[in-house]
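Audit log entry. Action: structure prediction of a protein-small molecule complex. Ligand: zinc ion. The ligand was supplied as SMILES and no pocket hint was given, so placement is left entirely to the predictor. Protonation state taken as written. Sequence taken verbatim from the request; no trimming, no tag removal. Recorded inputs:
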Amino acid sequence: MDCLICKDLERVLESKRSKYIAARSAAYYRVSTELAASNNVDMECAKSDLEEHQLVCSSAAEARLSGPRAAMAPPTRQKLNEKN
Ligand SMILES: [Zn+2]
């Protein structure tokens, strides 16, 4: 996948996630509970930003199309017919 926006959003999500995990691991300090909660919200926002972009992103769409559906493409069916 070479979409810069995807890469950027993924990088943001990763950094939010690691901040959240770090805050959560320190959650036994009372003061960090709120911080962990707000980091969780940040992470969820970054995740939905990425998902929203992937709905309209052509390189994410190409990645989806190269899945099982690609096996149903006309050239493959023609080859099967020739064998019969
Ligand atoms: Zn993209």
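Audit: result stored. The CA atoms of residues 39 and 60 lie 27 Å apart. The mean pLDDT is 80.
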